[in-house]
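Q: What does the assembled structure look like for these inputs?
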Amino acid sequence: MTITASQDQRLNRRLRLGMVGGGRGAFIGAVHRIAARLDDRWELVAGALSSDPERARLSGEDLLLNPDRIYGSFEEMARREKEREDRIDGVAIVTPNHAHAPAARAFLEAGIHVICDKPLTTTRQEAEDLAKLARETGLVFAVTHNYTGYPLVRQARAMVQAGELGHIRLVQVEYAQDWLATRVEETGSKQAEWRTDPARSGPAGAVGDIGTHAFNLAEFIAADEVASLSAELHTFVEGRRLDDNAHMMLRFASGARGMLWCSQVASGLENGLRIRVYGEKAGLEWDQENPNSLLFSPLGEPPRIIRRNGYGANDVSRAASRIPGGHPEGYLEGFTQLYTDVAEQIAARLEGREPDSFSLQVPTVEQGVRGVRFIEAAVRSSEGKTAWVDV
Amino acid sequence: MTITASQDQRLNRRLRLGMVGGGRGAFIGAVHRIAARLDDRWELVAGALSSDPERARLSGEDLLLNPDRIYGSFEEMARREKEREDRIDGVAIVTPNHAHAPAARAFLEAGIHVICDKPLTTTRQEAEDLAKLARETGLVFAVTHNYTGYPLVRQARAMVQAGELGHIRLVQVEYAQDWLATRVEETGSKQAEWRTDPARSGPAGAVGDIGTHAFNLAEFIAADEVASLSAELHTFVEGRRLDDNAHMMLRFASGARGMLWCSQVASGLENGLRIRVYGEKAGLEWDQENPNSLLFSPLGEPPRIIRRNGYGANDVSRAASRIPGGHPEGYLEGFTQLYTDVAEQIAARLEGREPDSFSLQVPTVEQGVRGVRFIEAAVRSSEGKTAWVDV
Amino acid sequence: MTITASQDQRLNRRLRLGMVGGGRGAFIGAVHRIAARLDDRWELVAGALSSDPERARLSGEDLLLNPDRIYGSFEEMARREKEREDRIDGVAIVTPNHAHAPAARAFLEAGIHVICDKPLTTTRQEAEDLAKLARETGLVFAVTHNYTGYPLVRQARAMVQAGELGHIRLVQVEYAQDWLATRVEETGSKQAEWRTDPARSGPAGAVGDIGTHAFNLAEFIAADEVASLSAELHTFVEGRRLDDNAHMMLRFASGARGMLWCSQVASGLENGLRIRVYGEKAGLEWDQENPNSLLFSPLGEPPRIIRRNGYGANDVSRAASRIPGGHPEGYLEGFTQLYTDVAEQIAARLEGREPDSFSLQVPTVEQGVRGVRFIEAAVRSSEGKTAWVDV
Amino acid sequence: MTITASQDQRLNRRLRLGMVGGGRGAFIGAVHRIAARLDDRWELVAGALSSDPERARLSGEDLLLNPDRIYGSFEEMARREKEREDRIDGVAIVTPNHAHAPAARAFLEAGIHVICDKPLTTTRQEAEDLAKLARETGLVFAVTHNYTGYPLVRQARAMVQAGELGHIRLVQVEYAQDWLATRVEETGSKQAEWRTDPARSGPAGAVGDIGTHAFNLAEFIAADEVASLSAELHTFVEGRRLDDNAHMMLRFASGARGMLWCSQVASGLENGLRIRVYGEKAGLEWDQENPNSLLFSPLGEPPRIIRRNGYGANDVSRAASRIPGGHPEGYLEGFTQLYTDVAEQIAARLEGREPDSFSLQVPTVEQGVRGVRFIEAAVRSSEGKTAWVDV
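A:
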């Protein structure tokens, strides 16, 4: 275990966060909330959590927001927060795509920093107008192309920028899933419904939902821009109104060439975001389903496995790591589970009810005793010519 | 993307947490704090964060604790918290091993639930006394054998318990690292110092530090107890006073046989905790460095790859998952990084200073625009017989 | 070890083989010769092994051919073999691409079965004329798209044909190498020279050399034909006259879509031939660098790892296997190495010289004794309560 | 593709081989025959292929041996071959274990070099007597611990010997299968019968059959000897008379420590032979089921993947390679399959029968034409702004 400085963020100023969208039934809103509190730099204090005012209210109560700061619409929220002394420092916009632009505009105009889900908008004009406004206000405006937050993605970009791959020739990127391989949108899945509805998703399906992630990742790591592309969008599932698969050939500004594949019908693939970059001097591979490794292949040498926060990790990726190498990032969730299980057990007692049965798996003091007996037995056996010793 | 219910814990009662140990320079304390807040069920409100009172005070200030509740010793903390109306619901004990028992005892006697790091104590007598006390008080007492919090570890245990492997014959477990392959304890590493010091670690080195994790995992997944063992502890690094490698043969109560290897000198292994269990009907493999997959091999059939929260995941593991299958758990940290970077940028403005340069990697509205232009270009190309279109 | 019927081919009739090309300095000729003798169904008896008569003669002598049957040209060989009572049953044509067609034609006209390396010819007209001639003669005419000889490739095709994937939607195929990432053709590599020379390779470089393998594999496994394609060929290495990279989008006759990537400049990839096929009901993945596994992912179930000749292997793949599952096919070469080393040692004695030093690694009777002592020690220790026993 | 010198062995003297055992129903005999001919340095000319004279005769006829040289017993074969002018240069002994020693002795006494299957004998005394005799005769005596023939196994040993790992501390070796997880020996499997019969296998089951391979591999790669061991042999399948699982702790002469696990009841493992060696400076891992890669992990650097005959391969391993890196060794079998299929098709014609249907999968001239059309279409599309072109 290489012990590194942890990112214990209480040392730093904490900020106030508002949220638009992300109420009951939403997926990504909860992810944004976890992301906001994991490093302890944000506290959620206000929300317009649904376009339906009643749902917005209930969702706000779920999250224990001050009733004062549970809003029925983003317009109201922007207007009233602007007037508060303790107004939110930033707002997270996690609505379906079509609502990003008006909400973002409202908060920019209120002087509030914006964190917006991707894709930014559903039309190019809207996007460019919004970017112009953001530039004019000078406010921070982040788009959650979240894959750029992975330590080894940042390492990859830094290696490209440092010339470790030489001039880049090829970028192969893909993002393939299978969750829309059948007509899920007709089974009541809220997620599938809006993602296959042109009115809410814009002109593209898979391309907008996940192709943009692949595209962003390609430009981010290659540290280059796609100059032009040739694309074939295709809809495999009958009756679906947007593409569920796309193939593209890419030409980068620098002269590099690439391919991009995105799919929601690739049977057997859960969330296969993967990128490979080849330069004159070396190649790189990264796969989101195994994000703690980066394969680096200098031409003429054995490929090297760079591990997050491990040997070969650079400053850029270390700065984005919380735990030592070898502990995959799920380590934190595993650890969290114990705390949550204990909380459930204690809360159940306080509330005079049975705890959720899943919470009972947490190791107890009896397992602690087993551990100590194990150590003692091991030492005793080893001292006694490895004799068999009872535990 | 299979959309599953997120664990958005604000819905639930939040509890008050105290901490013993984990101040400046500690590693595991910060991990405990992240774990406590990730699901938003705990708030850290009190601490005796170091055995050195001055360090305890500074560490408490770092964490923005109310000065009232920054204590110079765990004894003081237990005594005074007990008297408060809003006293802590639980305490996390994250000191070096030798201090676990007295601290745990103090809080149990104060009627406060305990979360204690492993190994529970440094002697068997102490451990059994503590367990007896815990049983008598009836309080929750959890030991952070954190690997049992991984969804697929719980799934594995449930599969064994359900008889999916048949009668268990073999358990092969190992936990091998390389961070003590050289004499690190003489280079100023606080982590290495106490772990190689019998006074603070107890009678075992690698066995106590990581062997206990392997042992716990073996008993947890096999749903069985080790009845006896034959062990050889060995110290490879000259001058070290505790074992840095151990080999063991195990006999389980059920008649199963096993081997256990733990090492801190296995050059090239970062944190190789891995377990394999073979029964009459099937085998299982799980590797902590790739925790989102569980290999299940029914005798006479092709092995199957069960993914966390994916196809084949059972209720037990789903209950411990926060995000859809295919998103490895590092997904949350990646997402978090963006929020933290934005917080840094905003905080820097509020404080009139330059933001940390690493925080500037967060995607901006300009990347958002690129994404929208990408979608539009893709649609346009596809409509135009896949003609090349500028992005 | 699942014991299966071995393919011990001496039971079967052996045939006489001739070869065109494949003399000194050639690569693929030697591979063809090993392939011909491994199953013991062919004996090489004649050759026109180079277009240079002197080189042809020397190469024939190397291979211990009867001087009578060492020919200076394929024309002579075809003419004279035709007249022999014991004429060759088949001829292997392993010349550079441009010479395939005239040689094949000559042997077809002599009534001799043909095994021809790929690509068949350098122009479409030549290819179609040759196919017409082959059909007219009714002779066997095989093209060594050798990847179709892998057991699991055949299994994959059979699974597609049996409908186990449902209607095929997507075929992603790639063949990427890095051996031409620099200007190797100017360093004296005979292999690189002709492959980058339009006069000998035809109109395409990477596309002809390896793209054709990928294309063949895609059509073979998908059991479908590519109806049309959109391609971008590119030359990255300055001064090279043929493409060293190509990106393509594919449309299959059945309506499936696909992508094909072939490259000789992908730094770090040795011989990355890989195919993935996704149907309505399941997906398949196969990677030539790990050819003993086939990943089969039925929609909604955990992916399964089918191993060559192992659990889940079907009749088609078993028929093409020589050894039990779990023994990767390199097993035979490993075994061979011992025989070859022993031959070298014995030959050296017969010839009164020192054996090649590499041959001395073969285990001797002393290692055999060690093995027996190991068994005895193991039994003795186990009988004696696992006491330590000297070996 | 890194083009390397092929091992085209016709250049070298060919030797005459005899075989004892390996007749109808045997497994390993056929493997020995393939191994003998793959490099074309041996020709099988004589055999005592079964201890049953009638079976020996039929087996010899199967292999097209000269009736003169089909013998009813190894004694007869040794006696008569000794007298021939063209007597065998070497004999391969591939009988069950108990017959190795008398056969080997007979041929040594006849002045014939010996290749003997492992384990050498069933008792230590027999083994040492045999070794003494071999030393006295000065004849070549090889034991087919075939895993030492893998190129990367030899590379690993050479790296250890060259000090690239520093002083060796740990050797973890395992060989685990599942084919005896049930009582197969009662289902008519000849292989299982003799392997579980003490009279034919000697005092050990799994330990003798596969434990010896693991042991040999450990000593070979570590370039060291096991000084002592502590073992627990176990029989899991009721009624079986020999061990089907064993756990051992090892102490090497140099002071290194190790563990050895061999099993025939590890459900889901086909042929899991795997070794890991850790020294003061670096670690190594090799897995027989993926034999073309060797993981090399220098302490403090990213692990490197050394590929057979690829980047990082040393002279020792190159000398044992037949094909370029990236072509896994199964490449030769895949190639062979095509030749065998064509032979089958031609033979069927010559014999006026239908060919085996499996042989019809070989690519024909029509696939060859498809390949050429593919190239042409690709070039045409690329020249025409990547327009879609029919294939």
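Chain B touches chain D at residues 165, 169-170, 172, 174, 178, 181-182, 230, 232, 234, 236, 245, 247, 249, 257-259, 261, 263, 265-269, 276, 278-283, 295, 297-299, 303, 385-388 (CB under 8 Å).
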